[in-house]
Each structure stands twice: as C-alpha cells, then as structure tokens.
Design goal:
Blueprint (H helix, E strand, L loop, with lengths): L8 H12 L3 H14 L4 E7 L5 E6 L6 H6 L27 H7 L2 E7 L6 E7 L2 E8 L4 E7 L6 H6 L3 H18 L4 E6 L2 E6 L5 H9 L1 H5 L1 E3 L3 E4 L21 E9 L11 E5 L2 E3 L2 H10 L12 E6 L5 E2 L10 E2 L2 H19 L8 H12 L5 H10 L16 H4 L7 H5 L15 E6 L3 E6 L2 E6 H18 L5 E11 L2 H16 L3 E5 L3 E8 L7 H14 L6 H16 L9 H13 L13 E5 H7 L4
The structure holds adenosine-5'-diphosphate and magnesium ion.
Amino acid sequence: MSAIRILPDNLVNKIAAGEVIERPASVVKELLENSIDAGAHRLRVEVEAGGKRLMRVSDDGCGMSHDDAVLAFERHATSKLRTPEDLLAIATLGFRGEALPSIASVSRVVLETRPAEAKVGTRVEIHGGKMLAVKEVGCAPGTQVEVRTLFTNVPARRKFLRSDTTELGHVASLVTHYALAHPEISFALQSGTHTILEAAPVVSLPERLYQVLGRALLDELVDIGQVRATLPATTPDTWFAPEAMEPEPPGEILARGFVSRPEVQKASSNTIYIFVNRRLVRDRILLNALREAYRHVLPGRAYPMALLFLELPAREVDVNVHPQKIEVRFRHQGFIYDFVQQAARQALAAARPLARFPTAQPERARTAAWAAPPASVPQAVRLESEAPPVEAFELEPARLPPRAQRLPFSAPAPVAASAAAAVLPTAAELAGLKPLGQVSNSFIVAVNESGLWLVDQHVAHERVLFEGHRRARQAGAVEGQRLLTPVLVELSPQQRVVWEQLQEELEANGFELDSIGARTVAVKAAPAGIAASGIERLLGEIFDTVEKEARQVSLQALQHQIAATVSCHAAIKVNMPLTPDKMQWLLGELGKTENPATCPHGRPIVLHYSLRDIQRAFQRI
Ligand code: ADP
Ligand code: MG
C-alpha cells in the first residue's frame, strides 16, 4: 500500500493557517486588506479579549453575491488574479486566495455580505472549516466578517497567544498603521466598550497622522515631502526569451512620509513603518537604508522613527515571497536602498539645527582628550577650572561615546591599565568627599582620602532620586505635586492600550490622571521635580518602554522602570553650573545611597583615581 497520501482540504487549510495566521492581529490584517481591496470607505474593527474571543470587521465595500460568498472560503479562490501574468503586477493587497479558508479552518466564522445592487444579502457560517449554513439575510451593503474563538481547534497555537493586552496592542498597532496608509478611509477600532481609535476621512497624510497619533508625535517628525526618482531601465535577459521581453519604459518611484528629528531616539525598530504601494512591509534593506541615514546622528544602539510610503509600478515589486505578504522583493534593490537613504538624509539635513550638535572635528578632539594617558588628566581638569575651555561641547547624556571610550583611566596604556577605572565604590568609600569644581559643568571633581573622584552629576542625582522614589513606593504611594493647570497628553492607540494597564501603578507613583475622550488624558499631578513641560515626554517614555517589553513586565520591573524614568527626568542635567553647596549636598546624598556605583540604567556614576594610582603615575612609588 502506498504511504503517501494527498491531504484533505481541511488539513491543507489548517497548515496554511499556520503560516498566515499567527495571532489575532494577523486575522485583522487579512480582513482589513480584503475590505480595502473591496473599495471600502468605512472600516470598523471590533475586538474582545484582544481578539482572542471575537474579531469583527465591517466595511461598506463592494460586497459579494451569494455564490461568491460561498466560493470565497474555497482554497485558492480569489477575484484578484486571472492569469499568470497578473502575478507580475499585483495591484491589490490580497491575491493568494487563502486568507478566508485559513481563518475559517481555525475558528468560527460568520460572514454577512451584500452588494449594493442586491436586494438581500448572504450569511455564511463556518466552524473549524466546516460549512454549517448558508442563508439569505437582510444586511447593509458591504461585508461583515465575525471571527470567534481563534485557534479553538488548535490548542498548541492557542497556548502561544499572549495576554489580552498584548494581543490588543498588536491589533491596535496594525489598525493604526493601515489607517495612516489610507487617510481617505474612515477607521474605527473598538475593544469591548472602549473606543481605541476613531478617524474620519481626511485628504492628507499629515492630517491623518495628527488625527491618529496626535500633535506630540507630529512634533518629533520631519516631513520628507515628495521625493521622486526615475528607476533604472531594465535590460531584457536576451538569453532567456528574447522575443518575450520588450524593453520597458523606466518607471518612477515616489517616497512620501515622515522620519524622526535627529534628537529622537527609539529603542527598537518597532517604530519604523514602511509601506510599499500602501502595503505594510518589513524589509531589511529599507530598514538598513533608514538606519544608515542616521548613522552619524544617532548612537549605534538607537533607532529612528519613520513612516515611509513608497510608491512604484507594481511590476517593480514582487509581493509574492511571503505567506503573510509582509516581505517584498524589489527589482532594483540597490537603487531603492540609495534612494530611501538619500530621501531620509535630505529631510534630516533640513531639520538639523547645526549649532546643537558637535561636528565631527570637536567630537574627535574631545575623545582624544579623554583617552589621553592619566598624567594629562589633572591638567585637563586644571584647564577647565581656571579658564573657560577652548571650545565648549554641549553634549547631552545620551550622546556620550560608548562606555569604553568614556573611561579615561582604563585606556590601554601600561600605566593606565593599573589605574582604577569605573570602580564599584561602597558608600563608605565616598565618605568625606570634598568638591573642587566641575568639568564642563557636568562632572564634579572631588577628593577625599582615597584619591580623586569624578562624578557624573546627572546620573548621581538620578540614583539619589531613584532610591528615594523606590523607598516611597514600597512604603505605600509616592506623593505627587499638583500642577497649576492640568497638562493634556495625547495618546496613540497603542499607548492608550498600555495606559489602561498602567493607570493604577502610575497613580501610586505620584501621577494623577483623568481620561478625557478616546485619545487624551489630563495630568493633574506629577512626582516632585517634574516640570509641567516635560510631562508629556516622560509619560511617552514610560509607555514606550512598557510597550517595548511586550507588555509582559512584572510589577517589580514596571515599578523599577517608572522610578528610573521619573528620576531621570527630575534629576539635574549635565551642562549645569552647580554651587559648591549644591555639589556638597549631592555628594553627601550619593554617599547615602545603597548603590552609588551605577545609575538605574546601568551607566557608571563615578570614576575613581586612587591615591596609589596617582603616586604610581608620578613614579613616586
Ligand atoms: P484574496 O484576498 O487573496 O483574494 P481571501 O481569501 O482573503 O483571498 O478572499 C477571497 C475572496 O473573497 C477575495 O478575492 C474577494 O473576492 C472576496 N472577499 C473577501 N473579503 C471581501 C470583502 N470584505 N468584500 C468583498 N469581497 C471580499
Ligand atoms: Mg485577502
């Protein structure tokens, strides 16, 4: 007997579902794409339990006839392709004809649909791939697909789903980005009774951006305008099929969208969204092109934010390379890489206030001074304290060179190697510190019996505030300070999801927040030391970190994050002159902390140059 069998359709669909449907957001993506392909002007997404219990997508698109509604659930049934040539120039979002049968094979689906010209609609009910009923139904023109209990019959997959909030976050992100790509369509996203997104049709991308993500985000972005280029002509492969290949006129590529201002730093590439012919894609080449554009602008581990819309002739892109249609291949990959990088660079150059950033030259000079052998360090200190430095470099903390370069005393010179670098002092070792002055208004130079110390004033204060904040939180709630007038903060749909999870903890950390409308919260109180003007950014940072950590953070980790972010914002900054009293106070407080060595983000707070090292460097011992 033969061992090989042709698999039954239902099993084939389930296998396909394994590729196409990863989580609720993948279902929403397929359904949204179908609605957009159907020419909808109004789209509504409703979910329950992050989509695990229910997803319902309704549109006012072209609808389906009775026969089409049934056919749509057959494998490889599509209205979007007819001939193999169609595959070379796909103008719709869908084309594989496998989304609906895949979804239906792993959940309970009810579809109701009616073309505007038909008197009655059709209702199709399918559970786990089994067609249960097809009936006539009275319904509005358009289509509504309801998907319940995703992975009901695939327990292994169900186990991989994350918390409701995490899944809802993915759905919110997806709907947000489709809403951005289609400003002319009205979008709504509802989770249970909460409205997470509501966007009426508008004519332009900036308007939609403002509508969906708010002014604060718009402020962080630079409009790249409309950048066009002519694509290279394709030389026909004459050896392949000379008669079939007519030389094609060269096509045009257009880039629109936004990239982040040079000072904006994100922790992951999750904030880079790229659309190719209005299809959301993840493309390594384009990601790299964007990062390359920021190479000398952002530190190596930071990412920019981007919303990039590329439009080019369909034949220039192969979208049929990934079951979720999320990866694409370009015919002129190298050209597109350069084009995107250039477009981002130009926008950045226009946005970049030159005076605020050190040019390459002073940057090198500064590093050289720091990396000099230890004997020159006291001199550098003297220079700074006696006369104004030859050139003042106004660096922000995040722009400091990587840690290794920042530790002058660990430079590989033989003498330096024996000298201490960033030491891990115990609080006792910091006792009796006497401040002498500041280097570059940022680092306190201090001495005590054990030698010379350099203290980064910002992270030192951050550590002091952090421990105070943690103690207060552990003892109950941190007391907040009421603001004179409430600060209004706009939330993105994703932040809105995180906010609901975070509200209680934020309140225990000295914030008082009120929701006003779907997208705005009013902040009425904030922890001590936080300026009203910095609140929006502070909250944004807390939301973003929580979101980045997949919303799975433990309460402990969450409290740590909040305390760290709050103290970073409240701490004195670098480039700030301090009076001797203030320095003395800060050193004293640092000495009282449990962990005076590193800031809550892990950066060193103090550099120590021990008396022995000094004596050795001067060859006195
Ligand atoms: P594909 O989108 O790749 O064609 P699907 O399985 O997603 O495959 O959908 C199958 C077909 O069902 C589509 O080609 C389209 O004709 C029809 N269809 C699906 N959703 C809708 C909708 N919301 N409105 C109108 N037609 C739809
Ligand atoms: Mg489809």
